[in-house]
Amino acid sequence: MDSTVSILVLAHVEPDGALARPALETFTAGADLAKQLGAPFVVGLVGTDTASAASIAAGCGAARVLMVNGAAFAQARYATDAAAAEAIARASGAEIILAAGTSRWMRVLAGVAERLGGCIDTHITRVVAESGTVSIARWYYRQRIEGVTSRTARPWIMAIEPGTHEAFAGAAGDVTAEPVAVSLPELRSEVTGVRSPASGEQTIRPDAALLLVAGAGWTKKQADGETHVPEAESLILGCLRASQASLGGSKSLVDLSGEGQAVLPFMTHLNQIGQTGSSPRHRKGLATCCHGEEPHVVGWRFITERRAVNLNANCGWAQGKTDVLYVADAFEVMRKVNEKLGKASEDRPREAGRS
Amino acid sequence: MSYHIVVCAGIVPDPLQSLEPVMGPNGPGLKNEMMLPAVLDPWAGHALFEAAHLAAGHAGSRVWLASLAPKAKLQQVMMTVAQKVPFELVAIDGPASGFTDAAAAAAALADAIAAIPGLDRSKLLLFGGWESASRAAGATLQMIGERLAITDQFQGVDSLTIRPDGTFEILERIEGGRHQVSTCAGAPAVLGWATGHLHEPANNPQLGMTNMRTLMPSLQKARPAAVPMGGTFSAAAVPSQRRETRVVKDLSPDAIAEEIVEWIRQ
Ligand SMILES: Cc1cc2nc3c(=O)[nH]c(=O)nc-3n(C[C@H](O)[C@H](O)[C@H](O)COP(=O)(O)OP(=O)(O)OC[C@H]3O[C@@H](n4cnc5c(N)ncnc54)[C@H](O)[C@@H]3O)c2cc1C
After folding, report:
1. Residue A351 pLDDT more than 50?
2. What ligand 1 atom has the least distance to the C-alpha of A214?
3. Could you read off the pLDDT of A141-198 as tens digits, one per residue?
């Protein structure tokens, strides 16, 4: 046990003062690690209104809460976030620093490690301490090889992959948060807003229980020798609306959309899952009209329960990779699925701009 | 307005190859690593195409491709990449392994970039992929940026628009399939690209010949860099992911839908 080590968890606070799920997951990871090492546990908060987040941190066992407040820190901007994280890290003196692998922290944490003269690992799925030695697990080569490594350099920043830990849900506690002063460089950048996909339909929902994966089969000629793209579109969107699922696409389907063909306009590179796309974490996944080849089926890697609908019983996304493969026409099946989900999508007008 | 764009791009095993880790005395590597066909790291490749596109629209701009890789393999990859867009190569001879440390790779790249003759740091746009297909950490570019004292950094970039007054509008990927919109006063800046909007340019053999004239000398004088492992590895493995698949062949669409809906609702 190394009682000289201290653990810092960095969290950015949402505009309404809340902590998003990835931050609460990192609280769990940090508190667990501190307990295993018998080390003090410090939380650092960044944002405009950090009061309620501070009480949650106290409830989670934080011995100290450090905070960087102010309007400049409401934005997810490199110059301000890096300066805030650096100042908190220095004030805490922590040797191990955990933060959620959100887009906001992922933009700055490696830069902060460089400033601190420390080291960093990202996309961490597990942190363990054994006989005082801390090691982490993460994936290399785009989710294809899992490695376990430990480092002696400090401070060691760890970006924890969202969806890998239980979110802290305990009661709040009492703490007096300590403000930390930050010196900012000249600010040359400003966040001006957030843009949603052009189609206006939200199709990516990181917190959804179900991932619906659509493959290029939806746009191919069907038994009658014709393509049925408008129906494919309404079936897929209908299922998303009725189930509140998140939508993933195979590379082939996404590339088709990018080539400007009249296919599934809501499908963009942001939907692509797999080796050259993203590997989202969801409890269930339903693949429809996808084929897939061995190295690219990593899109399934973090989906716990998997099912597939394909006309081809030898489908590469299915054999040995899904729990159930339904050999059937996805158009027919999804029509019925949508009916049963209570919302027959095909006779509803398209609700562009609403989700 | 002209720009000096340095694109950092490594090389990675062709994504179609099956990868198998092997433990060596210093840590893991890939089985037959030197034999595996390699390609330009995909997201960094998008960055290169974006850089060339940007340079073409801003007279007087220059594009460098900075790559840390075993020089023989890099030369092979350059045979194709050189046919895509015009650039000057800054080669550093070192490992392309995903298991090496990002900070050491960043140090070697930053030193090489700082030493580029004629590079105007006030015009510098440091491009690369927001994540590599090897280490997949999203760390190297930020560290190079810090070493070059650039505090305007953007990651997961899908679009860079240069406005008439020379300021930038940048779209970065954030959660939920959305983009964060930012403005930036201009160069210098770091942009880690996601897919962007450009297609891979077709091969142009003539361009390849022109590029190769500067590429070969750069490869020849590539400085060696030692890049240690990213920590002490106790394991590296491809977890077995075989599942028992229940194949359902003779159910009606209605009965299948019934099963699926019941499962979704669980
Ligand atoms: C360098 C590289 C990187 C890649 N990276 C990725 C990646 O990150 N992610 C990824 O997904 N792919 C990736 N791929 C491609 C991948 O290997 C597959 O080729 C691709 O995913 C197949 O896409 P698909 O299933 O949409 O299309 P197809 O292979 O065309 O399959 C269509 C499927 O639809 C089925 N189908 C058709 N009609 C119906 C119907 N009515 N009902 C039921 N089923 C039907 C067919 O049986 C078929 O199986 C990559 C490829 C390369 C070369």
Report:
1. no
2. 26
3. 998 999 999 999 999 999 999 999 999 999 999 999 999 999 999 999 999 999 987 6
Please classify residue A314 by burial: count the beta carbons closer than 10 Å to its beta carbon, then call 0-12 exposed, 13-18 middle and 19+ buried.
exposed
Q: How far is Cα of residue A48 from the mean position of the Cα atoms in its chain?
A: 23
In contact, A263 and A219? CB cutoff 8 Å:
yes
Is the per-residue pLDDT at A354 higher than 60?
no
In contact, B123 and B186? CB cutoff 8 Å: no
pLDDT class of A355 with cuts at 50, 70, 90: very low
- CATH number of the domain bearing residue B219: 3.40.50.620
Q: Position A346: which residue type? A: E
- Mutation site, B40, B146, B250, interface A, largest A CB count within 10 A: B146
d(CA B45, CA B85): 11
Mean pLDDT, residues A236-255: 93
Residue segments in chain B with a per-residue pLDDT below the cut of 50: none
Residues 321-340 of A with CB under 8 A from B: 321-329, 332-337, 339-340
Place A262 in a pLDDT band, splitting at 50, 70 and 90.
low
Domain count, chain B: 1
Range of the domain at B89: 4-224
Q: Which two tokens stand for residue B114?
A: 């700082």
Contact status, residue A312 vs residue A194, Cβ threshold 8 Å: no
- Asked whether residue B102 is domain-assigned, the answer is yes
Residue of B nearest to A200 (CA): B178
Cβ separation B242–A320 shorter than 8 A: yes
Q: Ligand 1 test: best mutation among A142, A212, A224, A276, most atoms within 8 Å of CB?
A: A276
Nearest 5°: the CA angle A234, A237, A243 is 130
Tell me how far the alpha carbon of residue A308 lies from the centroid of ligand 1, in angstroms.
13
Of the candidates B203, B215, B195, the residue with the CA atom closest to the CA atom of residue B43? B195
Chain B contact set for A258 (CB, 8 A): 199
Going along chain A from its start, the domains and CATH numbers come out as 7-179 (3.40.50.620), 199-354 (3.40.50.1220)
Percent of chain A with pLDDT over 70: 93
Q: Are A97 and A160 in contact (CB under 8 A)?
A: no
DSSP lists the bridge partners of residue A44 as A10, A66
Asked whether the beta carbons of residue B233 and residue A148 sit closer than 8 angstroms, the reply is yes
Q: In chain B, which ranges are continuous DSSP H helix?
A: 42-56, 71-81, 102-114, 140-147, 205-220, 253-265
Nearest CA to ligand 1 atom 43: A310
Residues B128-176: tens digit of each pLDDT: 999 999 999 999 999 999 999 999 999 999 999 999 999 999 999 999 9
Distance CA B93, CA A316 (A): 38
Neighbouring residues of B244: CB distance < 8 A, sequence distance ≥ 6:
A323
ipTM of the complex: 0.96
The pTM of this model reads 0.93
Paired tokens of A215: 């493959």
Quick one: pLDDT at residue A4?
63
User: What gap in Å lies between CA A34 and CA A94, rounded to an integer?
Assistant: 11
**Closest-CA distance of chain A to residue B28, Å:** 9
What's the pLDDT tens digit per position in A117-129? 999 999 999 999 9
Residue B253 lies in a domain: no
